[in-house]
Design goal:
about 25% strand, about 25% helix, alpha+beta, 5 helices, single chain, eight-stranded mixed beta sheet
Length: about 210
């Protein structure tokens, strides 16, 4: 298995996977490729959506998301916006050319609504002030069922933020019990909860978490 994207080389993460019953077991080491996808292999992140959309549909069909066709269409619209900013990063985990996990992120713009979306707390202005490079948003690492609990999410995350020019990273995660594994992983990676967010009009509530890099 290989990770595609970013500039941070990862160690060989060979390990035994524990696939779910009825699913095909992944095999072989997980290794990172070197080079920025936009330069080294000519990727345009906006054009890569079709490569990982099937993985997105599979992951987010499960609880607590329970996404259907209208939700997927909404994600496609959101991704088109997220892929525009300079500095946007996309990392894919693939085995035999099949994408089994992904994550991406972008820098918060000075006029971002990210911090204003918090519902339960008002953070100080000096904390929420953005300059286009201060904060990088991590979109939740998503891994298909058969490849979970084998270090893929951690590798995706490490690849994504490995050489960031940012003071901190932030993400949102659902508060339901089904997302406890993700929340526990983020805490182990150094994130802390700063509030409860409604990321867009009509969205469910999410826990907003931050990890300092500086």
């Amino acid at each position: 298995m290989c990770l595609y994207g970013d500039t941070q080389a990862l160690p060989d993460l060979s390990r035994s996977f524990r696939p779910l019953a009825g699913t095909r077991a992944p095999s072989g080491p997980l290794q990172a490729t070197r080079g920025n996808p936009h330069q080294a292999i000519g990727w345009d992140s906006a054009a890569q959506l079709d490569r990982f959309l099937t993985a997105y549909e599979e992951v987010y069909a499960d609880a607590p998301y329970n996404e259907g066709p209208s939700d997927v269409a909404e994600f496609i619209d959101h991704y088109a916006v997220h892929a525009r900013p300079v500095g946007m990063r996309l990392v894919l985990a693939a085995e035999n050319q099949e994408v089994v996990g992904f994550t991406y992120g972008y820098y918060l713009a000075p006029d971002t609504r990210w911090w204003r979306n918090l519902q339960d707390v008002t953070l100080p202005d000096d904390y929420t002030r953005e300059d286009g490079r201060r904060t990088f948003v991590v979109i939740e690492p998503a891994v298909r069922k058969a490849w979970r609990r084998g270090g893929v999410a951690a590798a995706l995350h490490a690849q994504l933020i490995g050489d960031l020019d940012a003071g901190r990273v932030t993400l949102t995660v659902r508060p339901e019990a089904e997302a406890e594994a993700a929340r526990s992983a983020y805490k182990a990676w150094g994130y802390r909860k700063v509030g409860v967010s409604r990321p867009w009009v009509g969205a469910p509530l999410y826990d907003c978490m931050v990890r300092d890099l500086s």
